[in-house]
Amino acid sequence: MSFPAAPEPSEPSLAAKLIAEVAGTFLLVFALVGAATFSAAFGFADGNPLGVGFLGVALTLGLTVMIGAFAFGPISGGHFNPAVTLGLAAGGRFAWKDTIGYIVAQVVGGLLGATAVFGLASGGPDGFLDNAIAGGFVSNGYGELSPGGFGIGSAIAAEIIITFLFLLVILSVTHVRAVHGFAPIAIGFTLTIMLLVTIPIDNASLNPARSLATAVFGGGDWLAQLWVFIVFPIVGALIAGFTYRFLFDTVKKLPAQN
User: Fold this and answer.
1) Most buried one in 10, 82, 126, 148, CB count within 10 A?
2) CA end-to-end span of the chain
3) Residue 113 to residue 60: CA distance in whole angstroms
4) What pLDDT digit, counting tens, does each position of 218-243 carry?
5) Is position 128 within any domain?
6) Where do the TM regions start and end (predicted)?
7) What's the rounded Cα separation, in Å, for the pair 138 and 129?
8) What is the pTM assigned to this prediction?
């Protein structure tokens, strides 16, 4: 007795892919900004520190990206980040013509995620929301706005180098020769490590959609510095994509036939 083979799943529509990118970016920003706003320093002012600190925030984002990649990756590829989308296009893994739609979806998802956290914070005790906004609402910054007081040069270098390394990992673990099924795990833990390096320098962007979403609520000086966290993660991602494409992802040519 034989049974008919299961039908091949159809390619997700463009609308489904964009919705998946909105949902995944919402999840990423909501989790990151929520953990940093509500949990990072919880109880510190009362002398009973129960907050998760830098490590907890970094793990939150790494685990969220891992979960999002498993959940939405089969639909859209699980980018959730304009720098990732452009880096994958530069590496020949994504169509340039589809980058604009993905980036718009990611920006929308990020803004919705930050807005949701803002709404929750508005219900906090007196002064909670005002303090969150005064602190930049988890925005990225350098100089006086840097968590560790690092200057613009350090912020630029960190965003280029860390995003470059992050994209190289993504391109490597999603390659056809890589072990299948483990890419989201490697990507999530890589992002956790990268955040532990970068949070003290500039609050760790690596993602223009995340930076825009928080700067909108931080306002003022945070918006004035936003350009750094849009331009330089993209620069690092593009360098990674082109480097990987031309140095590592070449196709072996067959010998000429006589």
Assistant:
1) 82
2) 49
3) 15
4) 999 999 999 999 999 999 999 999 99
5) yes
6) 22-45, 52-73, 79-96, 103-121, 150-170, 182-201, 226-248
7) 12
8) 0.89
